[in-house]
Design goal:
The complex is a heterodimer of chains A (136) and B (182).
Chain A: H1 5-24, H2 29-53, H3 64-76, H4 83-105, H5 108-135
Helix pairs in contact in A: 1-2, 1-3, 3-4, 4-5
Chain B: H1 9-15, H2 20-23, H3 34-53, H4 59-90, H5 101-106, H6 109-125, H7 129-152, H8 157-181
Helix pairs in contact in B: 3-4, 3-6, 4-8, 6-7, 7-8
Classes of the chains: A mainly alpha (136), B mainly alpha (182).
């Protein structure tokens, strides 16, 4: 596994979520540690999964950038509490485009599996975002 | 485990609306404008119905709210198509502006589905579904925009990502306006 600047961009994109989650939601030591551990776990899982899926498409990490910018815009300008929706969607966008690109490189039969996984994750993402919004 | 033979082409086409640039019939491309119009129309109508429910607006207000949404939806899709065409010009790619209309409208397929769900879910149960489904639809539109621009710009991320961010800022600001005046 090669660690390059695109993975670094991905990690930097996750940093604002960690900072906001750790310090702005409820500033306590437990909260800070839980967000740091959560983000470390997500980043590690991302790096391992996406590197396995598509080692020559590391540029896809940059797909997290617009979601991070928009999250910061909504958080700072509008004071919206939209950490989870943007976090989940960014991860999903990264996953779905990496998976479909992977599917394109595979045969028809093998392509079905990653696309099915992407579809299921998409439905889950939608449910999480809606439930977060309804609950807020 | 043997995986069943299922065609995933529709799913692939749904998340890559750029394919409409080549495949959509020239005479029917304007029909695609129904998609964003209905999406925004239902969103505005739902917001209007919420206002009606708390007595802030009358029946005519709700009707005009829905009508405004129809116009805004079509305008947003056309502006987005123009932005995409402008970016294509910047990176010296020959794309016909009118043919970009159908992929720009195709971006709103999943958001439209979500808005229909929002109406079906929000009306009988009286839950605050407008903002929740609105935000979800917006995020889905952003995901599909990335897919569309990614394909149109031959996977040049340095061009597609700023374009999506700009479109996202405009959409978020309009959602904030709707939420404020709802």
């Amino acid at each position: 596994m090669k660690f390059d600047r695109y993975i670094l961009i991905g990690i930097l994109c996750l940093l604002p979520y960690v900072c906001v989650g750790a310090f702005l939601t409820a500033p306590s030591l437990v909260n800070v540690f839980s967000w740091v551990f959560l983000s470390l776990a997500v980043t590690a899982a991302d790096v391992v999964c996406f590197d396995m899926l598509l080692a020559n498409r590391r540029k896809n990490w940059c797909l997290l950038l617009p979601f991070t910018v928009l999250f910061l815009y909504a958080q700072i300008v509008f004071r919206w509490n939209v950490l989870i929706p943007f976090f989940v969607t960014g991860q999903f966008a990264l996953g779905i485009y990496t998976t479909t690109e992977r599917a394109e490189t595979l045969g028809k039969l093998k392509a079905a599996k990653p696309l099915l996984v992407a579809g299921v994750v998409g439905v889950l993402m939608t449910c999480v975002v809606i439930l977060t919004g309804v609950g807020a | 485990m043997k995986f069943p033979h299922v065609s995933f082409q529709p799913l692939r086409r749904l998340i890559h609306p750029a394919f409409l640039y080549d495949t959509s019939d020239d005479s029917r491309k304007w029909l695609w404008l129904i998609c964003p119009s209905l999406c925004f129309g239902i969103f505005f109508l739902h917001a209007g119905l919420d206002r009606f429910r708390v007595g802030l607006s009358g029946g005519l207000g709700v009707f005009f709210c829905g009508l405004t949404g129809l116009v805004v939806g079509a305008a947003v899709a056309l502006v987005f198509a123009f932005l995409a065409w402008l970016c294509c010009r910047i990176c010296r790619q020959k794309r016909a502006l009118l043919r970009l209309v159908s992929p720009a409208c195709g971006v709103f397929q999943i958001p439209l589905l979500l808005q229909v769900c929002s109406l079906l879910f929000g009306l009988p149960f009286a839950v605050p579904a407008v903002s929740a489904f609105g935000l979800t639809a917006l995020l889905w539109a952003l995901i599909l925009m990335i897919g569309m621009l990614h394909d149109l710009f031959d996977r040049k991320l340095w061009l597609s990502l700023p374009c999506v961010t700009l479109a996202g800022i405009v959409l978020l600001s309009s959602l904030q306006l709707i939420v404020l005046f709802r």
